[in-house]
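queue> holo job accepted (adenosine-5'-diphosphate)
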Amino acid sequence: MSKNSANENLILPGSTIGIFGSGQLGKMTAIAAQRMGYHVHVFSPAHDSPAGRVANLEIQGDYTDLDAVEKFAKQVDVVTLEFENVPLAALEVAARHTRVNPGASTLSKTQNRGLEKQLLTDLAIPTCKYCVVRSLEELKAASADLIPGILKTTTDGYDGKGQFVIRSESDIEEAWSSLQTEEAILEELIDFQFEFSVIGARNADGLFVAYPAVRNEHSNQILDVSFSPSGLDSETNAAANRIVDQVMNALETIGVLCVEFFYANGKILVNEMAPRPHNSGHLTIEAHVTSQFEQQVRAVCGLPLGSTAQNSPAAMANLLGNVWEGAEPNWAGALAISEIKLHLYGKGVPAVNRKMGHLTTLAGSVEEARERVVAARELLSSPAAAELRESHAAERA
Ligand code: ADP
Ligand code: MG
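queue> job finished
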């Protein structure tokens, strides 16, 4: 553990950053941190994980093993996280030994969709109509006003997991039993024109910067494609930025935080927030002066925040495990489009709906970027690509 500065808030290169969680977000944060001269230790229940493979040290431990958490915290200069559902008890133990950014003030709210919605309501930030329910009877009562709606577990949901779309009364019982939860939130189904997100960064002095909004398209409630510029008018984008600033201030967040929005009938509504680097910000690696991952490092280490300026229109397409169905994806086929950047996280099993990697491209226009990244992804699994691959293999034989 190195103390480099008289300024208590400043954690300088050469120090060690600890990360709770070891997936792709941790991996990309670790890479950014190491480029800047930091050491990285990751802590999670996984072994040989995406982040663990690039970290200086991978610690396999359960978040409820507070002795292991304490040992991890003692060996690092700051703890951050890529997984927002780290139990609060673990954060509290870590905070006794080192700085934890973002801390319990943020996580205690964002770990529960009900508390998150309550915060928005308290701040008079527009969100959808909702009701927290704790039994089938309560769900039935709430449904009167909120069908068609979407039932979500208040905790632990991600990538559309823990959600059930209730189209009519006949879905209610199945919805409640399928979620297997003691508490859920029923939200009205918003008929939005599109979705977008804004990633903000806030440091210990309360300084705030925001990235330009990113447009997001989901498929089966999982992010599919993101692109930027978003096409939002500057007033709407500024209004969204103010909301992110307000939320981060209220939560005293140190680090980056993403707010997901719906755009419906000329209005913006907050969908949800995530106090960590976000899938919709992956394109900042190629397209922006400072990536969201470098920004996270800067914010949690007390360094000045980096420019969020965008250098080029860009688009990103997620690669779910589905891309592997049938055969190994045709990487050479997609990369034959020379502007395509491949990111693979190094996860073992390419299960259906599991985020395995993504493609990014820059282009002269956002339309071109979107078209190109989707075309490249299709090449990974298209029959034409498979044929091409086979004929190359035959030529080599
Ligand atoms: P997750 O944590 O899985 O990302 P979200 O609440 O963001 O959960 O839901 C995933 C996606 O499902 C959203 O991006 C959106 O496309 C859709 N969705 C969620 N809530 C609503 C809603 N109330 N109305 C309409 N669509 C919704
Ligand atoms: Mg979401």
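queue> The longest strand covers residues 255-264.
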